[in-house]
């Protein structure tokens, strides 16, 4: 009912050549979510990292991975430490942090922020990969949690560079901005670049920051998405439910967010 009232108000204002807001078109949002729909791509999912914040679900292909690139260094580095137990070295980058104090040594740290430019404090994803002689390595993982800068980085990174990664795990912040017409274009462009060569094998909303609604469309503020490169896909079938049995709440004291079926059912 609320959405119908808003639609009627917008129709009236349009008649007067006025607008209350630049709200995204509902059909455009539904088409966008449909492209992000989680599917079974033929792999068991495993949890890497801790039980709470900092743990992610990946397709079980770690025996095919050589290195992980992990921009955005937090207080917890259990994800990279867990990968180290599989013999996978991690490259970390963050201009706001110092090298993590951790017992495991199978990592490289760069005190720069990932960005669309290169200077003394910033580096592009392309240059970071090339500086580590990985431009021809197609067996990488990208785990990116950079607090909203992910859209800038994705939009400024070449499609060819993304093909070096078999798996992408990206935490999308301010995701409710898809409900804003202008911001939706920026976010959609970033996701379209990823989806050109990747499929979604898992999504999980971070319960830190709530959920927004456009009618019956639920949009979490922070959404973790795991992508698998298309050439690795074994099959494509729908899944029955979310969350996955290995998903965990990020913030124990906050209510969990359960996504509606538009995010995973055909």
Write the layout of secondary structure elements.
Blueprint: H1 2-15, H2 26-35, E1 39-40, E2 45-48, E3 56-59, E4 67-71, H3 78-84, E5 89-93, E6 107-110, E7 113-114, E8 122-123, H4 125-131, E9 140-144, H5 150-156, H6 159-162, E10 165-172, H7 181-195, E11 198-205, E12 211-214, E13 217-220, E14 223-229, E15 237-238
Parallel strand pairs: 4-5, 4-9, 5-6, 7-8, 9-10
Antiparallel strand pairs: 1-15, 2-3, 10-14, 11-14, 12-13
What features would you describe in this structure?
- With 266 residues, this protein is an alpha/beta fold.
- It contains 7 helices and 15 strands.
- The protein has helices at 2-15, 26-35, 78-84, 125-131, 150-156, 159-162, 181-195; strands at 39-40, 45-48, 56-59, 67-71, 89-93, 107-110, 113-114, 122-123, 140-144, 165-172, 198-205, 211-214, 217-220, 223-229, 237-238.
- The strands form 5 sheets. A 7-stranded mixed β-sheet has the order 6-5-4-9-10-14-11, covered by helices on one side. A two-stranded antiparallel ribbon has the order 1-15. It has a two-stranded antiparallel ribbon with strand order 2-3.
- Helix 5 (150-156) packs across helix 7.
- The longest helix has 15 residues, at 181-195.
- It is globular.
- The relative contact order is 0.18.
- The mean pLDDT is 91.
């Amino acid at each position: 009912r609320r959405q119908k009232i808003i639609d009627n108000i917008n129709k009236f204002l349009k008649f007067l050549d006025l607008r209350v807001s630049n709200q995204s078109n509902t059909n455009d949002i539904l088409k966008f979510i449909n492209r992000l729909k989680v599917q079974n791509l033929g792999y068991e999912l495993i949890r890497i990292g801790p039980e709470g914040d900092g743990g992610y679900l990946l397709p079980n292909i770690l025996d095919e991975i050589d290195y992980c690139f992990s921009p955005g260094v937090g207080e917890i580095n259990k994800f990279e430490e867990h990968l180290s137990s599989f013999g996978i070295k991690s490259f970390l980058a963050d201009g706001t942090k110092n090298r993590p104090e951790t017992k495991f040594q199978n990592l490289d740290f760069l005190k720069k922020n990932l960005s669309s430019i290169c200077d003394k404090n910033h580096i592009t994803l392309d240059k970071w990969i090339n500086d580590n002689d990985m431009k021809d390595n197609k067996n990488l993982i990208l785990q990116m949690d950079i607090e909203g800068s992910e859209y800038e980085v994705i939009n400024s990174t070449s499609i060819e560079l993304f093909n070096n990664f078999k798996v992408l795990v990206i935490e999308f912040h301010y995701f409710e901005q898809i409900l804003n017409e202008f911001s939706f274009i920026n976010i959609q462009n970033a996701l379209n670049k990823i989806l050109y060569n990747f499929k979604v094998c898992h999504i999980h909303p971070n319960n830190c920051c709530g959920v927004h609604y456009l009618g019956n469309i639920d949009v979490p503020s922070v959404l973790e998405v795991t992508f698998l490169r298309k050439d690795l896909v074994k099959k494509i079938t729908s899944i029955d439910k979310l969350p996955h049995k290995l998903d965990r709440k990020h913030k124990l004291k906050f209510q969990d967010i359960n996504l509606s079926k538009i995010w995973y059912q055909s």
